[in-house]
Each structure stands twice: as C-alpha cells, then as structure tokens.
Write a structure and sequence with these properties.
Elements (H helix, E strand, L loop, with lengths): L4 H13 L5 H15 L11 H6 L3 H18 L5 H12 L3 H12 L2 H10 L6 H21 L6 H19 L3 H4 L21
C-alpha cells in the first residue's frame, strides 16, 4: 500500500512525539521527518535536538509545527475541520520569533507533557485542573484581547518558560507543590504574575 508524503510525515511526527517510544525510535523519526520535509537543511552532528531544531529553515519549521499540531489534535480527538482550520491559520500567521518558540516547545517535550496531562485530565486533582485553566486563561486573554497577537518577545519567552517549567514539574509527580496557588497568571509586560511553578 502506497501512502502520501503527508501521511508518512504525520506517522513520523506521531512517533517523535510519543513519550512511550524508545529514545532511539523518537530521534530516528525526527531525523527522517527533517529529511522528508526540509530542503536546504544545515547538517548538524550531535544529539542535542534543541540545537538541531534551530538549524531548520523557517518554511520547514512552519511545516513541521503544522504537522506536530495536527498530531496533537488527533490525539486529543479534535479533528473536526473547523478546529484544524483555526490551527492551520494560526500557524501560518505566527511571527518568526513565535514560530521558533513553538518549535522549541515541541522539540524540548513541553507540548508532549501538556498533551499527556490533557489526556489524563480526569486523573488530575481539582486544584491542579484549576491551576491549568488559570494558566491558559491568563496567557490567552491578554494575547488575543490586549496585545492582539503582537506580544513583546520578552513576554513570549517568559510565557513559554513558565509553561515548560510548570508541566515538567507536574510530570515529575510533584502535584502537592503545585497546588494551592490562587493567583491568576496574566501575560502583561512589566506586570507578569507568577504561574504555579512547583517551587
């Protein structure tokens, strides 16, 4: 049976994002995905996937982010055309800096950690659920309403770092340290409120 290039890419991306797979399988899937989609890639000798990801041309990076989020939506059961169209449009409108941060979040495992948490939503405590809702509301509301999508680079980097640290802490089985944070986070330049960080 012959499959399309897009189907092959989606399958590779599914393997690369699957934390249950062995590291060698995930790394091989990432390498094959780069070769399948990218042209003019800069060869990188080493095992640091974050550095490898930064060598991608922007067009390739945008394609990979689109495929990765397609896989994420499939895992979450959100494959309706409207949701997919919204994500595709959003990805096409990402600035260069936003695109690089999104790709870094995919490569460093932040997106996988978030997806795993969402897939195990019922297993989370009520306080952790409320923390997660507050995090995303606190970041999304100003992003769309106050900044209209044009968030300063410093604030974007801060938000990505907060998400990475929070979901890493949550994954490392420290829910007690993460709970009880009542303050609602917000993405505001110069007035950034702390997200639950497990510290």
């Amino acid at each position: 049976m012959k499959i399309s290039k897009k189907e092959y890419s989606v399958a590779l991306c599914s393997l690369a994002l699957d934390k249950r797979e062995h590291l060698i399988v995930r790394e091989t899937a990432v390498a094959k995905l780069f070769k399948t989609i990218g042209e003019g890639l800069i060869e990188y000798e080493g095992r640091d996937q974050t550095k490898l990801g930064k060598n991608l041309p922007l067009t390739t990076m945008r394609n990979l982010v689109g495929i990765a989020y397609g896989v994420v939506l499939k895992k979450l059961g959100r494959t309706d055309p409207q949701t997919i169209q919204i994500f595709n449009k959003a990805i096409q409108h990402l600035s260069e800096h936003e695109l690089k941060l999104e790709w870094e979040s995919i490569v460093d495992g932040t997106i996988s950690n978030i997806v795993e948490t969402m897939l195990n939503w019922e297993g989370q405590s009520d306080t952790t659920k409320q923390d997660i809702v507050s995090i995303f509301e606190g970041l999304a509301n100003p992003y769309f309403n106050e900044y209209k999508g044009n968030v300063p680079k410093e604030d974007l980097e801060w938000a990505h770092k907060q998400l990475k640290e929070y979901f890493q802490s949550l994954k490392s089985k420290q829910p007690a340290a993460l709970e009880g944070k009542k303050e609602k986070p917000a993405l505001k330049s110069g007035k950034k409120k702390a997200l639950p960080s497990g510290r």
